[in-house]
Design brief:
With 391 residues, the protein is an alpha+beta fold. It is built from 16 helices and 15 strands. The strands form six sheets. It has a five-stranded mixed β-sheet with strand order 9-8-5-10-11. A two-stranded antiparallel ribbon has the order 1-4.
């Protein structure tokens, strides 16, 4: 890399386009004809820029290789405009240290943690929001006799819920007489079908228990006020001011970061067990699972609301979630007068846009839900625990 950078500076590599540089590399370094010349040129070009001085130093010192440096460069280009300017040198150093220790996979996995700690504004929430719009489940493609292939793409929140539910039903089930020799992929596929069969076999599809339980560590004030959450940064140093988001623990998805806004929505219809941590990360208290809307309350909401309560949406009641109008984390009770049916899409939208709803009664329509659809209306109105609210 040093030789190539010097050759570029002297004008030895004819032309200015990357292809010309690659040709020069292949002429003088035939060992790279099997691959790697393009990455070398990319990194050498970037290393000549002053903003990539840390990358150049790490390469010339031998702390990272060219392949890992290329991954660091790509990741930094994706992150730079989302970071606070003063945090860029720290992020560079963190990426380069991790590249030397763990390699490319760990570098890519670090993105949510870096945005949580060093991002400008609500970058972690924006990452969750973008991911939510890009989830995909393909149509089946026949792969072989009797086999059909799906492609599934999930966001961090959906992955956390799926892994929490899938873990118990996809674990090996050996006995003294019969070992479980199924490979992991087969166990997971069969576990997923077990979950689907249980869901469709439920009487009238009424929820009989809370959704998959996800253990999450997050500062309560951050959850309530959408402020910065206490936690640990990528380099292991405790930082009570900079880390935003909740961290899943205790499942195959452990370590995933969820934004406070995402956690608020999950608290409506998923089992969330609060874990209170001390200043050094020690567990001080393990709360009990939140009591959610009961099957009887779901039926009552079906009868009252009939469908998703957002004006113009006709998603049937059986396919809707029970939403806390005063959010659970704002001391909202799990009772009919504080509940409203929302389809999955509008449930996410209501929490993301911070939209307020309330139950009203009139002579014409009886008891029904009305919404103030202006973004931020929930914060303008302000949460109100009301009589009997949690304290």
């Amino acid at each position: 890399m040093a030789v190539l950078a010097e050759a570029m500076g002297r004008g030895e590599t004819t032309g200015t386009v990357a292809r010309a540089h690659v040709g020069w590399v292949l002429e003088w370094a035939p060992s790279l004809r099997g691959g790697g010349a393009g990455r070398l040129v990319e990194v050498a070009l970037a290393s000549r820029e002053e903003r990539h001085a840390q990358l150049r130093e790490a390469l010339l010192d031998g702390r990272v290789g060219v392949s890992d440096a290329a991954v660091c460069l790509t990741e930094m280009e994706r992150l730079r405009h989302r970071l606070r300017p003063e945090a860029v040198p720290m992020v560079w150093e963190g990426l380069l240290v991790l590249a030397g220790l763990e390699g490319p996979r760990a570098i890519r996995a670090l993105r949510p943690a870096l945005l949580a700690r060093y991002g400008s504004g609500d970058e972690l929430e924006k990452l969750d929001d973008r991911a939510r719009t890009q989830v995909r489940l393909s149509q089946p493609v026949t792969a072989a006799d009797g086999l059909h292939e799906y492609a599934l793409l999930l966001g961090t929140e959906s992955r956390a819920v799926l892994e929490a539910a899938l873990g118990p039903v996809s674990a090996p089930c050996p006995t003294d007489e019969v070992p479980d020799l199924r490979p992991s992929g087969q166990r997971r596929a069969e576990g997923l079908m077990t979950l689907v069969r249980r869901a469709v076999a439920s009487p009238e599809s009424v929820p009989t228990s809370s959704k998959a339980t996800v253990f999450v560590t997050i500062d309560l004030e951050a959850l309530q006020a959408r402020m910065r959450a206490a936690g640990f940064g990528c380099c292991g140093e405790a930082d009570q001011d900079l880390v935003r988001g909740g961290t899943t623990v205790g499942s195959a998805d452990a370590g995933s970061l969820l934004s406070p806004a995402t956690m608020r929505r999950m608290a409506c219809d998923g089992g969330v067990i609060p874990v209170v941590l001390g200043s050094m990360g020690e567990v001080l208290d393990l709360g009990r699972e939140v009591r959610l809307f009961t099957p009887g309350q779901h039926r009552a909401l079906w009868l009252r609301d009939r469908h998703c309560t957002i004006p113009g949406c006709s998603m049937p009641a059986q396919w809707c979630d029970a939403h806390h109008l005063v959010h659970w984390v704002d001391y909202g009770e799990s009772e009919i007068r504080n509940g409203a049916l929302l389809c999955g899409y509008h449930h996410s939208w209501v929490h993301t846009k911070r939209v307020a709803g309330r139950v009203v009664v009139d002579a014409e329509r009886g008891e029904h839900v009305v919404w103030d659809l202006r973004p931020g209306s929930y914060d303008v109105r302000g949460p109100d625990p009301g009589p009997g609210g949690r304290a």
